[in-house]
User: Fold Thymidylate synthase from Heterostelium pallidum.
Amino acid sequence: MDSLGIDQIQINKVPADTEYYDVMNGSHRWEVKVHDHGKVALVDSMPRLAPVGQTADFAIVQAARVSYGAGTKKVTEDKGLIRYLYRHQHTSPFEMIEFKFHCVMPVFIARQWIRHRTANVNEYSARYSVMPDKFYHPSAEDVRKQSTSNRQGGEDATDTKTAQEFLDYLDQVEANYKTYSELLDKGVSRELARIGLPVSVYTEWYWKIDLHNLFHFLRLRMDSHSQKEIRDYANTIFALIRPIVPVACEAFIDYAFESIKLTRLEIEAIRSGKPLNTANKRETEEWEAKRKQLGLPEPVKVEQTQPSSTEQA
Ligand SMILES: O=c1ccn([C@H]2C[C@H](O)[C@@H](COP(=O)(O)O)O2)c(=O)[nH]1
Assistant:
């Protein structure tokens, strides 16, 4: 018996007014291998169907216009609207697009990735399942030196001898997998046995995020200041979604990723041609980098005016 009357609700299944196609071309998933054992696979997209002749970008326009006539507008007008929305940070229409990925990455990358709290995540459980015998093991050229200018980063490769020592050290910790496995066989719980494994061990998850929040992730993680290993994943994700939402991706590159933000002090420095009005060394360095990128001339040197002899007297 349907006491709530749900059975009586009439659903009007309105037929499509135009022909639609699958934006993933009927594929089960679009996969890319990352690093030695990693992977990003696009497993679904919303919208999954787009009107023939349009890309999934149409959903941004549809949301912005909140109208069913969106499909009748010209593609060029839609592009202009998407770019306008992006430039002016009208972000909610971008939230109407969603992507679901299956990602396989080392735990130390997952820790950075999980900070993006606007996604939905389901991670592989090492309490319920045995961890795979898979570890991130960089090549010798990827063994980077600690940067002296930036406490987080590493850019240049170490000398080959030190790189080899590092790789030997990884071999040693990876060999602990055998002990992990043996202790599982002896009955130690999976939730505890895994605590001796290094953070280079691979984990995996399903990750679903809307396009607005994905662009935020990509802006931070495709940036040259992010750790190279997560940057490789971010670039892969961008490559996977670009064919599906090419207009939004181009707007992202033009107005976010490759744009420069100017502070009030920087605008003042451009107007006056004088140095940045701050004693903060880091801020000055940041401005110098922007000034060079913009091709602006060096600031005029402010001469220390010598007091005249009469003033001295
Ligand atoms: O580039 C970075 C550096 C740190 N973190 C976060 C992840 C962890 O929550 C914490 C420490 O991470 P590591 O610096 O140890 O990667 O800060 C990032 O998300 N990205």
In short: The chain has three domains: 15-135+201-257, 137-199, 264-294.
